[in-house]
Amino acid sequence: QLQLVESGGGLVQAGDSLRLSCVASGHTFSQYAMGWFRQAPGKEREFVATISRTGNIMRVAESAKERFTISRDNALNTVYLQMNTLKPEDTAVYYCAASFKTLSTSLFSIEGSVDYWGQGTQVTVSS
After folding, report:
1. How far apart are CA 3 and CA 27, in angstroms?
2. Residue/partner pairs of 106-112 with CB below 8 Å, 24 or more apart
3. DSSP at 101
4. What is the separation of C-alpha 62 from the centre of its chain, rounded to a whole number of angstroms?
5. In terms of Cα–Cα distance, which of 62, 39, 35 is closest to 49?
């Protein structure tokens, strides 16, 4: 069992930045590709960003490109989501996700690939 605990959410104004963190425990963190998803009120959960086991390959959703960056520190069992130039449409609950991967270069972007979820952290962006 891999436990994921997110932090860093909050209420900010449009144009501000936030950094979300997700700390993992219970299994070998470096065996998992990691990702972030989000769910806005009344909408389905959607992919935001993913990073490979070693952290050298990343993918970010088109809606967040140029603004969001995903990174990880395997020594700290932590994955981050740096969010810049936030917009009201970024308001959502942000979920950390882990997917066990045998290949160090593998990524994931669909919910069906997720093995473990965090409990979520609320991000609210006011206009």
Report:
1. 8
2. 106/33, 106/52, 106/53, 107/33, 107/35, 107/50, 107/51, 107/52, 107/57, 107/58, 107/59, 108/33, 108/35, 108/50, 109/35, 109/47, 109/50, 109/59, 109/61, 110/47, 111/37, 111/45
3. -
4. 15
5. 35
Express each pLDDT in 33-69 by its tens digit: 999 999 999 999 999 999 999 999 999 999 999 999 9
How many CB atoms are located within 10 Å of the residue 17 CB?
11
Residue 29 confidence (pLDDT): 96
**At 69, which amino acid appears?**
T
Q: b/e for 78-94, b at 16 or more Cβ within 10 A?
A: bbbbebeebeeebbbbb
Helix, strand, coil percentages for the chain (3-state, nearest 5): 10, 50, 40
